[in-house]
Design a protein that fits this description.
7 strands, transferase, alpha/beta, 2 domains, methyltransferase, 9 helices, 7-stranded mixed sheet, about 250 residues, SAM-dependent_MTases_sf, Rossmann fold, elongated
């Protein structure tokens, strides 16, 4: 709750309220609470207990269209204890909304949280790390042992906090191109980045561009810092990008 810092007038989306332990704390802040729950077994208890104080949507959040519920103004927060098997797609879904939450605070599997904050050149770094960090300020909080939960899971959990960056449309497009380059370079992590990029966009003089941004010819994509990756994006000729990435402004968010 301290990381989420809700206030009266905010709208909070809770993903996976379960028996309503966190829901109770959220409604007590005076915020508008909208909860998404897939398990119908909780419907009678939650809708009775929080009648008039929270709105519930029943079904798989990944299959629902939450766009009509996005508030037009005011504070917009998201939180929850996310199921391990779908935490990543749920977070990505929220970051793809036409208006992203101001803050997202979730309890997720510790391993996934460490991947989310991993830096280029580390073993945990991957596409998820880049996708989240190019879209938001990402922090990891407290770690909880399996014994903190009932039923007891097999792995530890951790708090993950994201504060989406306020980016103009052209910068979103730039970062989408960076993610596309990275997706090419991470398909075969142990191969030289320049060779993988040559296969993807053979019309580009990649060796020359690597020299231009001071990248070693033999470097791997997983080791390229974000700032250098973005400079590489800027060096690629505009007409060399795949058609979906040639527009000056993106057709969506991250």
């Amino acid at each position: 709750m301290a990381r989420l810092a809700p206030t009266t007038g905010d709208e909070i989306w809770e993903l996976g309220p379960g028996p309503g332990a966190l829901t109770r704390l959220l409604v007590e802040t005076g915020a508008t609470v909208r909860a998404f729950e897939i398990d119908e077994r909780w419907r009678p208890e939650l809708e009775t207990r929080f009648a008039g104080r929270a709105t519930f949507h029943w079904g798989d959040f990944l299959e629902l269209d939450p766009t009509p519920f996005v508030p037009a103004s005011g504070g917009f927060l998201a939180c929850g204890n996310l199921p391990y098997y779908c935490a990543t797609p749920m977070i990505r879904r929220l970051l793809a909304l036409p208006r992203r939450p101001d803050r997202l605070v979730f309890v997720i599997q510790e391993e996934v949280a460490r991947k989310a904050i991993a830096q280029p050149g580390t073993s945990a770094y991957g596409f998820l790390s880049a996708q989240l960090q190019l879209a938001a300020e990402v922090k990891m909080g407290s770690v909880f042992p399996p014994s903190s939960f009932r039923p007891v899971p097999k792995v530890s959990s951790a708090i993950l906090e994201l504060r989406p960056l306020a980016l103009p449309a052209n910068e979103i497009a730039r970062r989408q191109r960076a993610l596309w380059l990275l997706s090419v370079m991470l398909r075969q992590r142990r191969k030289m980045a320049v060779n993988l990029l040559r296969r993807a966009l053979p019309q580009v003089e990649w060796q020359s561009l690597f020299e231009q941004v001071a990248l070693p010819a033999g470097c791997r994509g997983e080791a390229i810092p974000f700032a250098t990756l973005l400079r590489l994006v800027d060096a690629v000729p505009a007409d060399a990008w795949p058609p979906a990435y040639q527009a000056a402004e993106p057709d969506g968010s991250f």
